[in-house]
Specification:
663 residues; alpha/beta; globular; homotrimer; Rossmann fold
Chain lengths: 663, 663, 663
């Protein structure tokens, strides 16, 4: 694991299999070049059928069998899906949420602060980890699964929240004022009088509660990490499969969709700290919707969180019918992950299931449990990967651009949405996608991250809640020569989602050479001939160049895009949403301002780069189209051995991928 | 009743009338040729205004008046709409459902297993039936009304369910495995630990509960039938108005819509067993939406359930504004019912109501309670029907085609839907409608029906849950020379909705000469140039002819429709949804394979046939269009007396109907 | 206040301000010509931070400062938004509604009959009013805010309702019959058995409950008025800001929309009686959606309720992004209000807020709290208004047309909707807008209003619940020479929403020379070539002229619009919904029948008229378009001093307004 081989594997559930085919599965895996499985994270009720009675026979058998086939195992703690007996024992195990008490059935329905839950969770974690940590082929642990706070908001949680608020604000006066609770008579004279925030109409108060809830989730992960650390070997990692906001594409009531921007239910920036190997779950559109954007976004977020390292704990094989891959696409997806710096890829999951809510979320094998086209493509990749392990060892990416995200801004814009159907993540991805398609590689940084050294270009989409430290960092960055491109809805409110009462963009009107006070919906408004949509700030230049103006009978005197030189750098501001193609020229100008040296290729040819352990540049050339494409790059194809001289035309197959190492 | 005259009548509610007009109503009915009314099923609170205090004065008066006018009466037990006092006496009378406890107000809100409910229901049934069974003009009883399980799922129901599960599976191990409860930690170690299935995410578990709930409904009907049997005369029938799945077309919150496939809330196959005359409620689109399909479907389902006999207990007269009939349509609808073998037709309802939630669901009379265009058309039919009673006596239909339905498949596909907005009944009706429009008359058989003798063609839409006995019957049928046409989503899962782990179509790959493993959504996919939609199985021929292939850049190598000779017969499989016109050629080929001799007419001319008691063929020629049409048939028009020689052109008026008896 | 100056001002919330800028705000207001503020109505928790501990420091400070700048103050009682401590003290303060118990957070969530609520409300009202009534610049009180019943339906409310029903109907028999409770077994034998009406399916029963709930709201206002009357000076008024039904246009979950027809949650006709100055809140579309219709409607409803006087307590300044005004529109809106007879206009609100759910519902000042384009336009109006105070003093409007509305019909049609997406208010506004655009000025009268003297034309849209007194008044009105134009869904049901059982339009078939019994949906139906929609009554002429017939293959024999001479007058009936342009010719014919002398102008030029205290005609010429327009009128422009001779062309600027006084 780690440097010696690239992780390639799948989640494996012997518990779900309709008959004993463990040996057969291991053989098929080995034949496909899969070297790792993840087990045990979903079946607490099998591992502990009655309170305190453990049965790890499946776990043992699978580890044994894997060992026989040279397959590594990641053991997951089974705490995200609780047994029926646990809820029967203490109904308080179910989280009380905004919607009231829950019903037993789904996963991720528990109150992660409930003492009964924690007691039994601790029991099964200790039993499982103490047993498996000794096994040589167990390479690491996944603590819990796609962890979030699940909206927990019952009485005990609220009591803790009131204490947390008291500690945070000191006095009720300070809190009342910071959150604007006077509105509609919501002030309190005592922290104990704070009402259930799930009923509130005060977005600032609600945002505080969301922060608190996310802290509970991170705390829960730390708690698990601490327990696992008591048992694990130094060479075993601790991971969690961090996932994303989600856009569902399956029929109503069914599981299935894809990653869509940053995760609101836990703060990745906090959560990643207790992990020794960041893992992530990335699902993405496929067929004609496969653009690689979701894969790149995931990697660009995870890599900085993991200090340059992460792996893909889950991604689709066949997936739901909506994403059954075209030939070549699965392979392209794997290399796209590696292009982002992933240390490997695991499928969810090995075999299509015959029951349960995800039985049409298909694995590498179909329901007939025999190899089919998808197995065959996985096998092709499995045979190629060993050739890549050495040249990709120690691969590091050094991006000069960063895109700034904030889960606080996400929550706040959920309360103060720019428009129906346009959320924070939509704006983030709109900007990210434009950069991605121009092959401007970005790291994705959380706004709390203070280290911006090495970056020349910052992209700041919809950073609604911008506190003073952040504002000052932006100022310093541009003053020192950096280039910033920010969008509408940025620099508007403070950390409590309270709109600043000075001119906007707050404390940055000199930097942007612009201010705005009025806002409206774009109706029959264009920018460079293309329709503006959703939200438009009426930008008034005060020093800035109006790079674009609104085209409209009344709003034509306001700028839509501004550009301003400030200190040694330059600041761009985009006041409305325009089509990606309209945005791109401004992004290119900002990239040029920042001195970025971009590949000439544009989407559907994606070029992503890094430097390997040997210090050689590695270039991934990815073709996200069903047609043949040509890229221009030099180096040696690590898979075919072809050598391309500088300036050579490198042909790319439909949905093809090449990895070139510097000659 | 029965052979001597065709039932023609209406539901009648003296209780709802704004003033005493009983005599006037009876006169108007008699003048219109109505010979039957149904009474009493909706007004328990009038019949028992306080616990144990009965007042049947309306019932008595109406039976008396009807008798004076030669009108027969069907008495309904008033158990589907409970009085307020009953719920006040025991709030547990209200069913606890997936949505929690209910509120008093609507009909069909009770827990049909509640002892208080059953005690008072029994009381009013006994009082009503014992009183009315003696009356000569009472020809039968309707037990309850459009009976279903109403989602009852309270604690007592769950306790019974757990016992039922224990009896069904024997051991928890067997149950855990059969239902795949290991998924997300849902296994239990004791049947008593089984959680409330209304919260489950396990479709197999939910399907078991639905089966159990439907059994409760059938049991409730049997219980009523047994009570009625203690009192009724041998010549009096026991009926229930079985109804269908429902598509609403009224404004939100209003009643109104039409029958749309088989009923999920009770299993007709079970429920019909305690009835001596199957009744059914059929509502259908009208105006330009009148195709007769819903009428034919209802008849084709009810006739086999009733052993060749059934009657229409309710159908619309004026109905809601959406279905106000064009001139001629009401008459056409009546003959369409008779063409399916109905022994008569009753309207819901005699007079438009002035209050209540169905006051814009109009009857034969409008709110002014005087004859209008609809009364006049009803009267025309009422005057024609006596001429038909003798020639239609003993009418039997002998269809050589059957279409197989399954309420278990319906429930399962509700959990594993082919697509948003496409349910089981949509697929059933898609296939049924194509057959109907080609004048391929089918019996509709429940999958549990074992007797397929007499059939040469089986149509099998979306039979997702196909157990081994069924699979074997299909095999035997084709081997013996029969023709089968099955569609996507058939032969996929077992009786517990667990997907089979062998190749699909399960245990029938040799029969179909085809297997499939991959499935996707059709996007830009055509079949014979027409768009495929919703779901496509990628069929791989293994012996079968690819009668049609998918037209698509990647999926073009897979078949969309396959045809395969097996044993003495032939098996067709349609892997995706295509427009009806694209489906029809394959259906015609299958009908030809089966040796069916079809009329040359096509929709909008519908031809339906039977053999009357005198052994003569009777042919119904129905014109579902606003234009004149011509059919080709011989025989004597039973209404006009016209004789048509073989090959004669028989003219049909707009929305016209003729009934020809073999010369 | 009153005759001496026109009210011009804004709601002002010092409690919400991020820093002390009271003096600055007062200066900015005075500079803009604002002369009135409304305060205190939203912040009970600030005024009474703990039970019984009052803190009116904000109130005092603001009244002091206002006094210094010659600004009048309206003090609002803060009872519509309850403090958290009050709900903690007695959770029963929260209304139990159809949706169950509420959660603390929003405004207007309390049970207005709860004793604890009333006790503390009384306390704060007495403390606030007794303190402020003495202040010279306090000109009046607003009791509560946009008061409604908030759906209160808890056990105590239901107990009162049962008593109310007993008093209303006398016997259960009478009630059962009047409401048609027999339907689906809903009759009761005792008023105490009446079930919770929030669960009912009986629209008549539900309508009774709505009437009862509205009476609670009016009673609550009277109760507050009585308390305030104990303290207020004779020159101080009592007001409430009556508002309207609402169409939301903001993103989901956000506040923002516009007035859309009459208010269902309180009966304005009752509620206005305890007010000495009727106030109203009017929000309307803006930008290209600004037509002035909502403003005119509000005025035309309020003016009769207030005996010819009313003022606008709230209207938008910048408002939500959807309604950011074009240049000139705010000024046009003010003059539109005055054109309806308003004694002044107050903005909601002075300054954009930085927190709370309405922080993007912007005031006169933006978030930067400095003057911008909107302040500047307000200032222009503020500088013009003093010139108008004298000539507009005592302005009276004498409309010869009235449009009849009924909140009972609104509730009833909510239960028996003409169509999805078409409610009572849609029909009211469809007819009102057609009249408005033709410059047919109407008073809007509640159906209970008995005095129709002075009117020559009555417009009666969808008056579903028409009782006998009303029917008789209509008959007398036409007999005496009046003209009536009624629409579909009128004269259908009695006061209990029970459909009449005689011919329709009930007891008026001779008056209209027409009856109808059948109704349907218009599909491919036109009237004068334009599509009919939603609902069509098939009108059968019996004496009336078929002014228009339905154009359709089957319904062509029925009339769509009828006209009939009766007594000395004429009665028109429109049986379906047609585009406004199709309706207008008939409306013009009815206006001609009534002898109305209409301006020649048509929308977008709106002409509204009155007679001022000096007995001179005053004519408002309003241009609701972005182009220049010309009107024809004579008189002197009160703002520019220009004199126009009879027949002169008066030019109107884009979104311009002129006020001409008779020479």
């Amino acid at each position: 694991m780690g440097q010696d081989r690239l992780i390639f594997g799948a989640a494996y559930y012997e518990e779900y299999m309709p008959y004993d085919r463990l040996e057969q599965d291991m053989e098929l895996m080995a034949a496909a070049g899969l070297n790792t499985i993840r087990i045990a994270e979903s079946t607490w009720s099998v591992e502990e059928p009655r309170p305190g009675e453990y049965d790890f026979s499946h776990v043992d058998r699978v580890i044994d069998a894997a060992a026989r086939h040279g397959i590594s195992v990641i053991v997951g703690t089974p705490t995200y899906a609780v047994p029926a007996w646990l809820v029967k024992l203490d109904p308080g195990v179910l989280a009380v949420t905004r919607d009231g008490p829950g019903k037993y059935g789904p996963r991720q329905i528990m109150d992660i602060t409930n003492p009964t839950y924690l007691r039994y969770a601790e029991g099964v974690i200790r039993a499982l980890v103490s047993r498996t940590a000794k096994r040589p082929n167990v390479v690491g642990f996944q603590i819990d699964n796609e962890t979030k706070h699940y909206g927990t908001a019952g009485p005990r949680v609220l009591a803790r929240f009131r204490k947390w608020m008291a500690a945070r604000f000191g006095t009720v006066q300070a809190m009342n004022e910071a959150l604007g609770l006077a509105y509609w008579s919501n002030t309190v004279a005592d922290f104990d009088d704070l009402p259930d925030p799930t009923g509130t109409i005060n977005g600032s108060y609600a945002c505080e509660f969301a922060i608190f809830q996310r802290e509970l989730a991170a705390e829960f992960l730390r708690w698990q990490a601490d327990i696992v650390s008591e048992y694990k070997r130094p060479d075993q990692f601790i991971s969690n499969n961090l996932d994303f906001d989600w856009r569902s594409i399956a029929p109503a009531g069914q599981q299935g969709g894809y990653a869509h921007g940053i995760q609101p239910g836990i703060d990745h920036y906090d959560a990643a700290k207790c992990l020794t190997l960041v893992g992530t779950d990335v699902y993405c559109p496929s067929q004609d919707g496969l653009t690689g954007m979701e894969i790149a976004f995931a990697g660009d977020e995870m890599r900085p969180l993991g200090g340059g390292r992460y792996y893909v704990a889950e991604t689709q094989a066949q997936g739901i019918p909506e994403v059954t891959p075209y030939p070549g696409q699965l392979r392209l997806m794997v290399y796209s992950h590696l292009a982002s710096g992933a240390r490997g890829v695991m499928y969810w999951h090995w075999a299509s299931l015959h029951t349960g809510p995800e039985n049409w979320f298909k694995g590498i094998l179909g329901h007939d449990l025999t190899p089919g086209p998808v197995y065959e493509e996985v096998q092709r990749v499995g045979q190629e990967l060993p050739r890549l392990a050495a040249p990709l060892a120690g691969l590091r990416k050094k991006n000069r651009a960063a895109l700034i995200v904030s889960v606080e801004a996400l929550t706040a814009l959920g309360w103060f949405p720019p428009d129906n159907g346009l959320g924070y993540n939509d704006i983030v991805l709109w900007l990210y996608r434009a950069a991605y398609e121009l092959n401007i590689e970005c790291d994705i940084l959380y706004a709390r991250e203070e280290d911006w050294s090495g970056y020349d270009l910052l992209l700041i989409p919809a950073l609604y809640t911008a506190d003073y430290p952040f504002i000052h960092r932006v100022r310093d960055f541009v003053k020192a020569g950096g280039t910033v491109l920010a969008t509408f809805r940025s620099f508007t409110a403070d950390a409590h989602a309270r709109i600043y009462h000075g001119a906007l963009p707050h404390e940055l009107t000199d930097l942007f050479g612009m201010r705005w006070s009025q806002v409206t919906r774009p109706v029959d408004v264009t920018v460079d001939g293309a329709p503006a949509s959703h939200w438009m700030e009426l930008l008034e230049c005060a020093g800035a160049e109006a790079a674009a103006k609104y085209e409209h009978k009344y709003w034509g005197r306001y700028a839509a895009v501004t550009s301003h030189s400030f200190g040694g750098g330059r600041a761009w501001y985009v006041g409305t949403m325009v089509p990606g193609e309209t945005l791109k020229p401004y992004l290119l100008r900002a990239a040029a301002d920042a001195g970025l040296d971009l590949p000439k290729e544009r989407f559907p040819v994606i070029v992503r780069q890094g430097v390997n352990g040997a210090g050689k540049a590695v270039r991934f050339l990815l073709n996200f189209s069903g047609g043949r494409q040509t890229a221009h790059a030099d180096g040696t194809d690590l898979l075919t051995g072809e050598r391309f001289a500088p300036g050579a035309a490198v042909p790319l197959e439909p949905w093809g991928a090449r990895i070139l190492e510097e000659n």
